[in-house]
Structure prediction request, 510 residues.
Amino acid sequence: MNRNLDILIREMRIITQLRSVAAVLSWDQETYMPPGSARARANQISLILSMSHARFIGPDFRHSLSTLVDLPTGKVFEDDLAPEEVRLLEMTWRDWRRATALPVEFVGELARLTAEAQHIWEQARRKNDFGLLAPYLEKIISMKRDEADYLGYDEVPYDALIDGYEPGMTTEKLQVLFDTLRPALVDLVTRIQATDVAARPDVLARDYDEAAQQEFGMDILRDMGYDLTRGRRDHSAHPFTTNFHPSDVRITTRLRRDDLTLSLFGTLHEGGHALYEQALNEDYFGTPLCESISLGIHESQSRLWENYVGRSRPFWKYYYPRLQQRFSGQLNGVSLQDFYAAVNAVAPSTVRTEADEVTYNLHIMLRFELEQAMINDSVAASDLPARWNKGMEEFLGVRPQNDAEGVLQDIHWSMGAIGYFPTYTLGNLYGLQFYEAAKDQIAHLEEKIAMGDLGSLREWLRENIHQVGRAKTADELVRELTGGPLSAEPFIHYLEQKYGELYGAISGIN
Ligand code: ZN
Prediction:
């Protein structure tokens, strides 16, 4: 290997290892840490992260990178480099440019502000008092506008923020997707609501033993190929996947006795994220080639398992008899068809995380609209509750009873994560396109799933998506695997087919 590249990669490994240390501390904080230690832990995490950040933006790293890349333009000096090494350097420069574009004091101030705002958000939500959060949010919005200016953008400031989560994505491209998606979804929801099909979701709210739910979820994780010698599962208030290295990828789930779906679909979702992280190529650990492409591509993996596999008929053909065996008291007399209909019940609601496949993306579109208003149009934080409620009525036909179940429901904005929400919808769209490609390329995939074979799909994902790291962009990956660009059409077609069948002869659905 090129000697300069070798030196750079060694430095990148140290930076990544420091981040991994911070991630272990965060994982512990969310799972086992005694609550009294919150302040001490925040200091520990912030110390480690500031050490890794300082190395990344410091003079040594800059010098090392400058031997391989023209720093002002990002042009890689390609002599004697392999194509994947060129890509590695392009991605490294991209991350470095974003990190160094922000003044150190700005980064520190934003970190302090958002740490405090998250605590305030919890209180505000508990007390149903948006007024508590408003001044913090106002400051966050103003700093995120400054951040966009530091980072630079072509069209609108919001683009600079989106690009941090989904490289290459822009407001305009999202708007085109959403303009196709929104009317189709609104139309489908309206037609579904006009039917009198009862989905019997009450079967999912019976009393389900927690240990048995755990075991059932673990069986599915094993079948998916989640490697428990290089991962583990714990509980947390908010489910997540975290990774310290491909050899240690952990998930958490949430359990409730009166809600079978929470842990079940949460496990499939986080399991999908975890398979991605476990299958990254660890030879490249510390570099972009051992990192996921984007949040949207990451989410495509969780949604693929949660929805396109986990809410499908073939999946339940195999797993429902097994679920019934574990919960005979709760599920005796509930047919496969009724259960399938229950896990796919469609009903507009005010809460994003509880939304079904059909209405989910409408929640995202509302946030997309509000984020643009905040960042591009200088809308004041205090105007958000009213805009939120109006938007909910327009998009979903429901109105939150209060701000706690309205504008205060998500933690993202108080974390400064503006531009993040669209990646959830991108995940749904990418995930469906990838699943369709897998069906084309793996013979009898759905028959295999119906026989409990999840390994064929996992191997396909590993080979075609997980192992790629950031050697391809999201756009390159989707074109290569599906023969076309990211598109809302396949998703709309999928919903029409699936819900047309489920909800019977809905006029206009065929
Ligand atoms: Zn996810």
Q: What stands out?
A: The first strand starts at residue 69 and ends at 70. The chain is about 65% helix and 5% strand.
